[in-house]
Amino acid sequence: MSIHLHDGHPVLITLPDGKRNGEVAASPPPAAVAELLTLLERYFQGDDVACHHVDDLIASVSATPFEEAVLKEVARIPWGEVRSYGEIAELAGYPHAARAVGNVMH
Asked: Residue 24, Cβ neighbours under 10 Å: how many?
């Protein structure tokens, strides 16, 4: 797994594809990354975790108002549930923008 930072905040997570690429960090991760890793570990163990830093994460990637609305709706999806891009678009206030939601999530 790779975690890419911008101004000390995680902005992109790349999951492994079975190949080992890149260097392994020899020093402890920054606090924001350590917290994210803990949340991810708990999530994948089946815990219902909430990310309380959604606004900070969105601000760190300079999201447009549309992207911000989409990301906030995605963050509200309860653990273990799914939403279609169309449902997310409607909940975000853009009922005809399912394909655009897909672009945000890509």
From this structure: 5
Q: Between the CA atoms of 11, 41, 37 and 47, what dihedral angle is there, to the nearest 10 degrees?
A: 70
Q: How far apart are CA 49 and CA 65, in angstroms?
A: 25
Residue 60, token pair as written in the block: 């760190």
With cut-offs at 50, 70 and 90, classify the pLDDT of residue 51: low
Residue 56 falls inside a structural domain: no
Query: Which range of residues forms the domain containing residue 31?
Result: 1-50
Predicted structure pTM score: 0.62
Would you give the distance in Å from CA 46 to the centre of its chain? 17
Instruction: Give dist(CA 55, CA 47) in Å, integer.
Output: 22
Structure token digits, residue 47: 């815990």
CB 17 within 8 A of CB 2: no
